[in-house]
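Anyone up for a design puzzle?
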């Protein structure tokens, strides 16, 4: 029992450290962006320009202002922490899948003459991942966690609808789908069942 508690504590500390460092990086980048006249915003994704595909990853770490960043900070911290409790390597894989799905979805579908950036695609991806992870892995406790996440953050799902021209519903939608895909792509292997046969 003591070993289990120690392991859980270590995972929580690691997950918390990773998410605090991530959020600190986002705030640092926004500080640099503000101090340099929003120079980093050029690394957002502009649609249907081949050279912009290189900006899919950096776009997920940049924001269009302090208010934009603040609105993403708490859900990113909470959902990221919960997802990272399952292991940092798996968490990193989930994030990479989500960033790729969100960015590659935005690139062909965003309106012309727009620049898409922000961590909200990752937020929606983590939401989608946590909602389905327990069912995919067939782990009852993760199902309970997913239901809790749905109660607290389920209203975010409205963000996948094109209700605000200033918000990238495309990034939200494809991020969400990326999170669901990540749950399947990175599912935990199931323990082999006992065949019931006895060899002699």
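Challenge accepted. My sequence:
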């Amino acid at each position: 029992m003591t070993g289990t508690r120690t392991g859980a504590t270590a995972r929580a500390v690691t997950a918390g450290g990773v998410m605090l460092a991530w959020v600190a990086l986002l705030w640092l980048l926004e500080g640099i962006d503000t101090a340099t006249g929003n120079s980093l915003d050029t690394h957002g994704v502009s649609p249907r320009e081949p050279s912009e595909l290189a900006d899919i990853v950096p776009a997920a770490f940049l924001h269009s202002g302090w208010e934009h960043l603040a609105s993403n900070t708490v859900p990113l911290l909470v959902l990221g922490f919960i997802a990272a409790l399952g292991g940092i390597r798996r968490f990193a894989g989930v994030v990479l899948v989500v960033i790729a799905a969100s960015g590659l979805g935005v690139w062909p579908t965003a309106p012309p003459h727009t620049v898409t950036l922000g961590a909200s695609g990752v937020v929606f991806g983590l939401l989608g991942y946590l909602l389905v992870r327990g069912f995919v892995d067939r782990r009852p406790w993760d199902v309970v966690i997913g239901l809790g996440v749905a109660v607290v953050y389920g209203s975010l799902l409205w963000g996948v609808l094109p209700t605000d021209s200033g918000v990238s519903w495309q990034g939200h939608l494809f991020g969400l789908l990326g999170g669901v895909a990540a749950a399947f792509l990175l599912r935990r292997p199931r323990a082999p069942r006992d065949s019931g046969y006895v060899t002699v």
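A detail worth pointing out: The mean pLDDT is 93.
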